[in-house]
Amino acid sequence: MKTMDWLYYLKRQNLSVSLPLKTLQGKFATCVENEGETYILSAFEKADGQNWDKKDPQRWNAAVFNHWGRFMGDMHCKTKSYTPANNIDIRHSFTGREALGDSIRNCPPVNKIAEDLIAQMLSLPKTKDSYGLIHYDLHPWNFFIEKDHINAFDFDDSLYGWFSLDIGIALYHGLWWGRKDDSGTDYTNSLIGNFLDGYLSANPLSDYWLDKIPMFMKFRKICQFSWFYSPHNTDDLHNLLDCMEQDRLFADCSIDKQLFTNRFYQSANFAAQHHIAVYS
């Protein structure tokens, strides 16, 4: 329930988040027993807006990507000044194993990649401008789109981690589910570019941290693989290892590495293309 304190703080900072609802007894949660099991229940305000939809150009476009990134940047920026009630850490810190399925331990080649990435991530510096409370799951199904902003919810995975990690998770899921629409339009670089443009307008990041985003995206791909891993499905394993070898997230996904530099967003080139649906 300590996360609720953070949500109220974000709301006071004018971020659009769904707040928890209290029971008739004035509590944020209640316990219910059913068939010998005890459950903790909580409820939240319903967010206004609509789900994303890559088939609807009004709900999956450059403006949506930009608002999404700006929300995250604003959240990270405002959270730098947040002090938890009683100065108690409200969530645990990133360890690398939170989102990995246990079955990956039975797949030595991929488990080795995961362990190497975890070691790299845990060796990164932790400063106020790079590390703090993050959503850790702000993918397209965890916000609603309303006109020129997004309304975010589902903060139950939040933890202390790098801002670039939060970005990497959001971008990975956006590309996983929405990099192409049914007509074959490729949103890959538009999604990344407009998201980061929105993010950087609210919370500056150095090139050092922008450069780390692809690593965090790669790690999220390993996590995704672990959720569905079966030793009988060798095709998924081969596809993953091929992508790792070719330094690609997906076989049909080509990312412009310039997108992970501040110079790109300060250039006339980006300004001319800003808020268009697809980059060439």
UniProtKB/TrEMBL annotation:
Domain Aminoglycoside phosphotransferase: 5-199
Molecular-function GO terms, alphabetical: homoserine kinase activity
Span of the signal peptide: none
GO terms under biological process: threonine biosynthetic process
Family, per entry: Belongs to the pseudomonas-type ThrB family.
Identification of the protein by name: Phosphotransferase
